[in-house]
């Protein structure tokens, strides 16, 4: 047996690098397969954030009825004609674990405001 030469050293480094890359790829695949669990919950503070449901359609239309929400550039505010589709889309995204839609209720009055 001779002393390892440059070719042996290169082969050894290549093998170690290949093993490292394969392990990193396995870990990344395992990490990507994990899903974040998203489930409805109610949050309370100055206001109440309640999970959105189809039952909120009329109160969402009323909350947006002052005309100010329709002009908002911060959020999407559907019109009265598109509110049901908006809620259905939000709930579909929730079912696919992509979104968690809420309505906002003013705690002091119990009135839904958004």
Q: Can you put this structure into words, describing what you see?
A:
The chain has about 110 residues and is an alpha+beta fold. The chain folds into two domains: about 1-35; about 45-105, no CATH class. Helix content is about 40%, strand content about 10%. It contains three helices and three strands; from the N terminus they run αββααβ. The protein has helices at about 5-35, 55-65, 85-95; strands at about 45, 45-50, 100-105. A hairpin with a 2-residue loop joins strand 1 (about 45) and strand 2 (about 45-50). The longest helix is centred in the N-terminal third of the chain and has 28 residues, at about 5-35. The mean pLDDT is about 80.
Key structural traits:
114 residues, alpha+beta, 2 domains, 42% helix, 11% strand
Q: Roughly what is the average pLDDT, rounded to an integer? A: 78
Shape: rod-shaped
Measured as a percent range, the helix fraction is 40-55%
How many domains comprise the coordinates? 2
Beta-strand percentage? 5-15%
Radius of gyration: 27 Å
| Total of helices | 3
Briefly note the structural class of the backbone: alpha+beta
Distance between the termini: 79 Å
**What is the ordering of alpha helices and beta strands?**
HEEHHE
Q: Biggest sheet, strands in spatial order?
A: 1-2-3
Largest sheet: 3 strands, antiparallel
């Amino acid at each position: 047996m001779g002393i390892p030469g440059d070719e042996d050293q290169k082969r050894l480094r290549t093998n170690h690098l290949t093993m490292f890359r394969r392990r990193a790829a396995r870990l990344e695949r395992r990490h990507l397969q994990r899903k974040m669990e998203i489930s409805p919950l109610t949050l309370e503070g100055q206001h109440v954030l309640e999970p959105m449901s189809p039952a909120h359609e009329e109160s969402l239309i009323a909350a947006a009825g002052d005309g100010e929400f329709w002009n908002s550039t911060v959020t999407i505010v559907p019109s009265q004609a598109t509110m049901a589709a908006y809620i259905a889309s939000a709930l579909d995204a929730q079912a696919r674990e992509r979104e968690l839609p809420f309505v906002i209720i003013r705690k002091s009055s119990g009135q839904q405001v958004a």
